[in-house]
Amino acid sequence: MKKQLSLKIIFIMCMVNFSFAQLVDNGYEPLKVGDTVPDITLTNLIHYPKKNVKLSDFKGKPVILDFWTSGCASCIESWPKMVSLQEKFKEKAQIILINNYWDKSKVKPFIEKRMKLLELNMSILPVVCGDTILKKIFPHQTVPHIIWISSEGVVRAVTTSIDEENLKALVNGRNITIPQKKDSAKIRDFNRFNEQKPLFIQGNGEEQLADRLIAQSVLTKAVPGTIDGYSVYPFRARRLKKGEIITVINAPLEGLYLFANKNNASTYCINRTLIRPGRVVLEINDSIKPEPGYNYQLTVDKLTPIKELQEKMRLDLKKYFGFQAQWQKRYKKCLVFSIADTLRISYNGSKKAMFIMDDVNFKVSGTQSLFPGHTFTMPDIIDWMETMIPYYADLGYPILDETGLKGPVSLEVETNVSNYKALDKALKKKYGMRLTLEEREVEVLVIGD
């Protein structure tokens, strides 16, 4: 009887420990690097033999959880790399894609379209559709959000990207050297900065200081793991009754000078590429090695036109770096939109408002719902391509409009948008429009000694 009672107690204690590792008050606890991942069940899978699978089924090999959304261009552009890595590591590691927002009915056709148009075998990557559990365990505000789990089930890293060298290190039990992402469930915490307060002062700034602040500028090196890419936040300072704050986060030297010298600086711009392709030329001494990125903030205690703020910023940059910047005409290779018959794509007001531009959709028609009365024009299309589609930013060619279209347009093609030759072919076939690589004289910002 005593032996039977002991076995029952041991069994109950094991169940308690097991349950605690998975649940806290029937809720999931957020995990951090170094924590052990509970043996949760991944549900609503596609590209996998089972509809549901436990994480323990992958025991003995590392697991990569890649959170993505349909609106994240860099997430989707990373899929060919993910496929390549899965093919290379085969049974040594498992990459799993996670979508928190869509069920199978939306995820499946979305991926199948890209498999066809991009000629990509996504079937080797399991996809969790409509996840509700993992997002509680790994809360985040931005994607890409990539979780690195060791073969022992321990969280080893949280990043925004993945590469072969670090995946190999994870497989072999070595340390991961890729920069860690700083993210959280709190929207104000996700980039480790509060852009409405002075940076790095008394825990980012106190209200007592704000009452006495007249002007301040701060320049620092970029902080690894904050917002990926370039983000700009110039706007009315809510904590100052009459004030302005410009914040530039994780921008290279060229990005700082470009914003300080832009002729049409936006009053609000977040998570957009600051540097337009091919628009900045750096002509400085080879011995000078700028940092990969910088954070800059300028605060003034009165409402000030952006032009004046830019002048103050230029003086700061001159003082800190010693470089001058000026706009010049230079001949460069450019991607040029052109068309023989403009009537084929002119918007006549009959179509429903639409703006869908991602890796395989190039669809524009109607008016912008966020800004009633604002119609979609060629400059809108080019602005989106240069700032929101990583392929064109990386390609480095300025995009020019030589169509002669002055008003709204209607375009609708499905192709590999992240390939200008494929886009050119699709636009030519349907509308007679071209997107070709040409030599043109364009205005560029030249930064020099």
TrEMBL record:
Residues 31-176 form the Thioredoxin domain. It comes from the Bacteria. InterPro entries: AhpC/TSA, DUF3738, Thioredoxin-like_sf, Thioredoxin_domain, Thioredoxin_ResA/DsbE_sf. Keywords: Signal. The keyword Iron-sulfur does not apply. The keyword DNA damage does not apply. GO terms for molecular function: antioxidant activity; oxidoreductase activity. It holds the Pfam family DUF3738. Residues 1-21 form the signal peptide. This is TlpA family protein disulfide reductase. It comes from Sinomicrobium pectinilyticum. The lineage of its organism: Bacteria, Pseudomonadati, Bacteroidota, Flavobacteriia, Flavobacteriales.
